[in-house]
Each structure stands twice: as C-alpha cells, then as structure tokens.
Amino acid sequence: MNDKRLNFIRKKILNESKEIIAEKGWNEKLFKSISINTNIEYAEICSLFPQGYIDLLTLYLDQINNEMILLSRKKNLDNLKKHKKIKQIIISRLKLYQDNKKLFNKTFLFLGLPHNSKLAIKSLYKTIDLIWFLAGDKSTDFNFYTKRSILAGVYISTVFNFFRNKDLNIAIDHLDRKLRDINKIPKIKNKFKSF
User: Fold this and answer.
1) Residues 68, 130: Cα–Cα separation, whole Å
2) Where are the alpha helices (DSSP H) in the chain?
3) Per residue in 128-150, pLDDT tens?
4) What is the phi/psi pair of residue 73, to 5°?
C-alpha cells in the first residue's frame, strides 16, 4: 500500500474517531473503542499508528495546522500589518477549536498533563512558527526566537482564556489586549535608546 493510500486511511480513522475522543478522551483504550464504533480492525489501527494513540493525536494536531493554513489563505491578509495578520490567523484557529469544543477540551486537558509536556512544547513550537510564517515573517537572526517566544505567551494565554470562558468573542478581546501590549514593546525600546 502506497503512502498516499496510508495517509488517506489514517485521516479517515481520525475523522471517524473524533466523536469518540470528544466523549472518552485520549487514552490507552481509544483504539478498541474506535474499532468497535467504526468496524475497522483493531490490528489495522495499531499498525497504522505504531506509537499508539499519541500518533493519532499528532495527526490531529497536524490536521488543525493544515486547516489553519487553508483558512488563513482564504483571507486577504496581504495588506494588513503583521500584528493584524497574526490576529486573523489565531482567530481562524480558535474557530477550528470552537467547531468541536468537546474534542478541543479533551485535547487541551490531555496536553496539559506533566508527562505530555514534550509533545505539548513540540506542538506549540510548530504552531507558533507556522503562524509567523503565514504572517510573512522572514527573520533569521536573534529576532526569530524572540518573536516566537513572545507570540507563544500570547497564544497560550489566549487559548487558555478560550478554554476557560468557552466564548470566542471574549478570547478575541483578550487576544487584542495582548497584541496591543506587544506593539508597545518597540516604542518602549526606542524611548530607552533615545534616553
């Protein structure tokens, strides 16, 4: 079976298992539940996801990134300033979370567990790097890491706000405030330089 066919089946299993994950969460019994509910052989699911349900979770996180890319490209971001582009990209992602809040809640809580910190950090870096790329960032110097560190703080804070309030508008207001604070940083730097 070629890679394209394998990827198709993997995505099919993920899409058919989202409701199960939304109800039962990410756990060791997940593949058995998927097999019972979808009539896909348990052994086949295990062979397609050799690292277990963590492989399925990684596929889900990649899928959100890909959907964020598609949503961002549908918007006309070219004429916007960078912070406005970032705002629109993050809003696109929050809308994806809103489309399936239960699945988002289970995933957010699971990634927040201490033993999942490595996966959570890797996933966060990938997402933040992608947001900057979509916003047109081409920096390669020290700024590259500074920008990503600052945006990671804004993003985590906004996602946590959305998780806590379950209200997209409240999360967007929170995002606005955080981005306004970041915009002040260059001005403060310039004042210090001139002083």
Assistant:
1) 9
2) 3-24, 30-38, 42-48, 53-74, 82-99, 101-111, 117-134, 142-165, 168-194
3) 999 999 999 887 777 888 889 99
4) -75, -20
